[in-house]
Amino acid sequence: ELVAQEIASSEAIACQEISSAPRALTAASSQTAMLELIGQLATVAFVARLGGPSFGSSGAPLALSRVTSCYLGLLALVTVLASVGALSQSAILLDRSLVREELQLWRLGSAFLYTDGLGAGFALQLWFFGTYSTLLEKRHFPQSGLRYTGMLAAGVLLIAAQALLLAAPTPLALGHALTFYAVALWSRTGAAKSYELLRIGAVRAAFVPWCLLAGALPLVGAQATLCNTFGIAAALAFDAAVGLPPPSHNAVQREAAAAAA
Questions:
Q1: pLDDT for residue 28
Q2: What is the pTM of this model?
Q3: SS3 annotation, 203-254
């Protein structure tokens, strides 16, 4: 009888676990669908913003700069093709073994043109890279798109070199790491200045990349966060080795006028 009771108890526990599994899967899929919906709405808001004025009341540019818009156009094209199945996601992401053993070198660049499909990660890439890359390009490279492209290419090489040292269990998407590269470089141009960050309070520019890194951790996970730190490290290395050119005269004038207002 004791053995029969133990067997019955084990069967009851197994039935409970089996019945709870579909509920957990349903909850997870609901959360994923909600994040995708939020990301798509944020993407629509970003596109709508592009039809507004070129500069905000603070003097910050709202319209995308040339190189920034070209990159985001490529990102959107690759993401849409991957989402509809016209392009294999496995052929885009950075896989260390395939790069080293089969010399699939295109992955060193294609990994920067993808985040996580048409979801929240894609929308974050549009907003944050679009904002901070435009700030950098219009402030320091207003007449030299080629030099700004070279600066981004240097970031791609530095981030990819670090990623190749990481024995990641899954292939890597490095689009967000490039965003952190742009954000960290922007933060070096006026590290002591304070800015309003996501309407949560004033934050010194030097701390903005680290605040964004911590805020993104629950959304992207530990592995992607580590890759994002590669972007910050690449920016610090570039700034120490090369540095940014001085801001343009027009950018300084706009900032002074905004500060006076």
A1: 47
A2: 0.80
A3: EEHHHHHHHHHHHHHHHHHHHHHHHHHHHHHHHHHHHHHCCCCCCCHHHHHH
